[in-house]
Design goal:
alpha/beta; TIM Barrel; 9 helices; 289 residues; globular
């Protein structure tokens, strides 16, 4: 597992961030639901993400959009299996996006090395499974399942005092629970949970003060991709939020993010390349210029 952390840190140094490409093998995800439910489409998408520069492939079989129905573990396993196996054959680092310990066990036994948990560790068994496989876990901040949200970025503005301090406290408590179940402290990654139990204002405040979460000492994972908070400044649908996504990714990297979970890997990588190039001295020769 030390190798995993080294790969992520190496990619972050070289590219600005390690890119986690999203593979939703679901019929109802908010952005691309239904596009990759067929095996051939899912595998081709994995290939495209890797060609675009993804270091991690994040495979999920259950939508986390507001109001989404829970998906039984056996159905999640049926959905994720082909894409997961294909990504492993391609030599990718694989993350399983699930809140189910049973699904995590399946994926980790196959060779996945990261569990992406959007429940803020509501089920301690998820940490136990992660620990048994000496895997890493992305603990994403939330305050309940997305089915409790009235809609995208619809959460009471009064739901937090200081959203950054509250997220940090909630996340730290979840990290402590994971460590108590046997997960190594440096294998618990922090995701502030843009859009999860938050209004657009809450998410923007988290993005603005993201560097404060570096105080947790955890590797910082951020997922702004196509999220509804972008529509607060431009009333666009998920497929038309690329500009906002790239801007949010660049800001996140400047504020300490090491991993970016995104749908548009190639485009975000291009944005990071421009950011890196802009920091070169004027005497630096850029290839292709």
């Amino acid at each position: 597992m030390a190798e995993l952390c080294a790969i992520i840190e190496s990619a972050a140094r070289a590219e600005g961030a390690a890119l986690m490409g999203v593979v939703n093998v679901t019929p109802d995800s908010f952005s691309d639901g239904g596009r990759f439910v067929e095996t051939n489409a899912a595998q081709a998408h994995v290939d495209a993400l890797l060609a675009g520069g993804a270091v991690i492939i994040d495979v999920g079989g259950e939508s986390s959009r507001p109001g989404a129905d829970p998906v039984p573990a056996d159905e999640q396993i049926r959905r994720v299996g082909p894409a997961l196996d294909h990504a492993l054959r391609r030599g990718a680092l694989v993350s399983i996006d699930t809140t189910s310990a049973e699904v995590a066990e399946f994926a980790l036994r196959r060779g996945a090395r990261i569990v992406n948990d959007v429940s803020c560790l509501a089920d301690p068994e998820l940490a136990r499974v992660t620990a048994r496989h000496d895997a890493a876990i992305v603990v994403t901040h939330s305050r309940g399942p997305m089915s409790k949200m009235a809609g995208f970025s619809r959460w009471p503005e009064s739901g937090y005092g200081d959203v950054v301090a509250d997220v940090k406290a909630d996340w730290s408590a979840a990290r402590d629970r994971a460590v108590a179940e046997g997960v190594r402290p440096d294998h618990v990654f922090c995701d502030p949970g843009f859009g999860f139990s938050k209004s657009a204002r809450h998410t923007f405040e988290l993005l603005r003060r993201l560097d404060e979460l570096k105080g947790t000492g955890a590797l910082l994972v951020v997922g702004p991709s196509r999220k509804s908070f972008i529509s607060a400044v431009d009333p666009s649908g998920p497929g038309d939020r690329l500009g906002g996504t790239v801007a949010a990714c660049i800001l996140a990297v400047q504020r300490g993010a090491s991993v970016l979970r995104v749908h548009d890997v190639r485009e975000v990588r291009q944005g990071l390349a421009v950011l890196r190039s802009a920091s070169f001295s004027t005497t630096t020769e850029l290839s292709g210029v």
